[in-house]
Each structure stands twice: as structure tokens, then as C-alpha cells.
Amino acid sequence: MKYRAFGKTGLKVSALGFGAMRLPVLPANPRKPKAAKVVDKDEAVAIIRRAIDQGVNYVDTAYGYHGGESERIVGLALQDGYRAKTFVATKFPCWKWKRDGDFGRILNTQLKRLQTDSIDFYLLHALGADTWKNVVLAHGLIEKMVEARNAGKIRHIGFSFHDSLDVFKTIVDYTDVWEFCQIQLNYLDTEFQAGLAGLRHASARGLAVIAMEPLQGGSRASLPPTAARVFKDTARTPVEWGFDFLWNMPEVSMLLSGMGSRQMVDEDVAYASRARVGMLRPADVAVIAQARQTMQGADTIPCTACEYCLPCPHGVAIPYNFRAYNNLLKGKAKAECEAQYANWVPMFGHRADACVGCRACEPKCPQHIAIADRMKDVAAAFA
């Protein structure tokens, strides 16, 4: 495992972090196909520990991941001596703020779930213009973070982000309290949300920067045929290309990978063993640029399958509809995509034509997708 300096904290973190948002789940009950997915606890613990055993020293979770089960499972995984080997990160859900006292109540719940006295890295989750103004500033959450740090309940203060570059710069520049931040970044999203400009701005301010969604929710691992041909004759897999794009930059302190199987852990750790700043040659940069160019023409929906939009009040399986539609746009066989839409999507909820346009999901979407409008596109494509 390779390690990198983590901003101004003086700490060294593994180039690869474990993201606990996509833990393995048990097979669906055929009698209850639309029931909430249940995490395979034993396998999830084994996977997290397998990563730590191979040098990963940063595990990222959040209050709402897997309905709260992610924090509990991370807490289990870090027993038996693993806590001492690992930095643990979790996030305060700003959208859960209702009244004074919520910050302390939620933080104490997280400490209990994680079975720890102190959280190494605590983030304000998914900041944007609205939550920044109406929650963080309006209710003094930065001051509450500092109080929690002074009390020893957390050690380092940061935030994750989903909004425009201008909003990102405003948040970064507001206070010197920030020690790190987490942004969505991959070779296709270089100008999306904070983007490369935000990465460099935060790094110049001394913040450690964590790159999340390095494969855009896994979509960069399964490429359209034109992009797949670009990578076909190279020694790297599409996943490795996505990771190396980030590790190549000195401003990237770490990338988070949502590893959901032992095989993924072993593969990602192998890629991380080769990680270094400046690892891409000019010819490699040209390959990535060519792959990016082939993908920018398709009007795919930038859904990362985070499932923040769920549950839909009308039972629409939002990310699953988008996946079938994106596969169609990427050039996969039409019959295969139609079968996915007709047979696979209903295992998780209703198809796109059941959307009534209530837009209850849209404020929850980190990608700011006009979900109701795009559902019309999906329904029309498969009509």
C-alpha cells in the first residue's frame, strides 16, 4: 500500500480508502422482491477487514448509508484490534437537522454505532448552497463541530460537497477550521460540481482532498463500446485507468472505492500498490482524453446509484430505471436493455412510466438530476 500526506493534519493515509456505501447485500426474498435490501453483515465485516489487512487505513461511512447499518457494520469490523489500525470517517446528515440538540444526539448515536469514543474524520455531509446557508450557517454547525472536537468526540473537521464550483469556493474560503473535504471527481467529471478547479483551490488552501465516485458509481467500469475500444489494447483495466487518473495528481490525497466483494478489494489494492504522483505518461493522458471524448456525446444520466432519491412515494425504482436507460445509450444490445427494463427493474419497484412528476426525489439528488423530466425520457425510450 502507498500512503500520502493528508493536508495539514500531519497524518499519512492510504492512497485507497474503503467506502462503506455499497456493502454486499443478501439475495432478495422472492416473496418480497421490493423489500429493503439487507446487508450481508458477516461478509461485509470480512471484506472491510481484508482491506485493512492489506494496508487500507481509512474507512468512510455515513449516518444514512444502508439505513444506518453501514455505521454499525463498520463498528463491528473495527473490533478485535482493527480500530487501532484504521482511521474512521463518518458524516453529519445536515438534512436531518430539525431542532437544537440534533447535532449532539446524532453524533452520540454514531459514536455508539461505531463502538468508538472518538471519530477521526467527521464531515458535514453533502453540502450545497441551500444546506450551507439554511443549516450550517443558520444553526452554527461549524461551531458545534469545533465544540465536539474540543470535547474529544471528533478529531478532524471536513465536509463533503455536491454543488457548483462557486459555492465550493465560498465554503472552502469561509473558515480555517476545515482540514479536509470530499468531492466527486473522475476523468469524465473534470468540470462537474467542484471539479479539477475545486480540487486545486482546496489543496492550495492546505486542505486534504478525497476523491469520491472515481468510477461515477461504477459506470466507468462498464463502458460504451467506443470507449471500451480505446482501452482495449492497453495493459490497464478501465477501473485502473479511472483510479490512475486521480492518483496521478499531487492534490488528490486519497480516492474512495465502494468495495463490495473480496475480489474488488484485492483488485483495488493491487492497483493502489502502483499508485504514485506523475504515474501517467503523456501517451496515457492522451488515451484518457480520447476515452472521455467518445463518452461526452452520449446524453447519459449522471446517476451514481447512491439511492438518496429512494424511497419514491409512488414506488418508482429510480436508479434502476436510469441504469437500463444508460445501458441503452451506451450502445448495449437493445434487446438486452429492453429485457432489463421489462424484467429486472420491476424487482426493485415500478418502471419509469409510473412516475407522476411529484419531484419529491429531486432535492435529495446529489447530482441535481431533473429526475421527473428524465423519467419521461426513459419511459419514451422503452415504450
Keywords:
14 helices, alpha/beta, 383 residues, globular, single chain, two-stranded antiparallel ribbon, 8-stranded parallel barrel, 13% strand, 39% helix
Summarize the structure.
The chain is of the alpha/beta class and 383 residues long.
Secondary structure layout plus pairing:
Blueprint: E1 3-5, E2 12-14, E3 16-19, H1 41-53, E4 58-60, H2 69-77, E5 87-92, H3 102-114, E6 119-127, H4 129-137, H5 141-150, E7 154-161, H6 165-174, E8 180-184, H7 195-204, E9 208-212, H8 225-232, H9 238-247, E10 254-257, H10 262-272, H11 282-295, H12 318-329, H13 334-344, H14 371-381
Parallel strand pairs: 3-4, 3-10, 4-5, 5-6, 6-7, 7-8, 8-9, 9-10
Antiparallel strand pairs: 1-2
Walk me through the structure.
The structure is a single chain. With about 375 residues, the chain is of the alpha/beta class. The chain contains 14 helices and 10 strands. The strands form 2 sheets. The protein has an 8-stranded parallel barrel, surrounded by 7 helices. Strand 5, helix 3 and strand 6 (about 120-125) form a beta-alpha-beta unit. Helix 6 packs parallel to helix 7 (about 195-205) and helix 8 (about 225-230) runs antiparallel to helix 11. The longest helix is centred in the last third of the chain and has 14 residues, at about 280-295. The mean pLDDT is about 90.
Give the rounded overall mean pLDDT: 91
Q: If helices are DSSP runs of H or I spanning 4 or more residues, what is the number of helices? A: 14
Largest sheet: 8 strands, parallel, barrel
Biggest sheet strand order reads 3-4-5-6-7-8-9-10
- β-strand percent reads 5-15%
**Helix vs. strand class:** alpha/beta
| Principal-axis shape | globular
How far is the N terminus from the C terminus? 49 Å
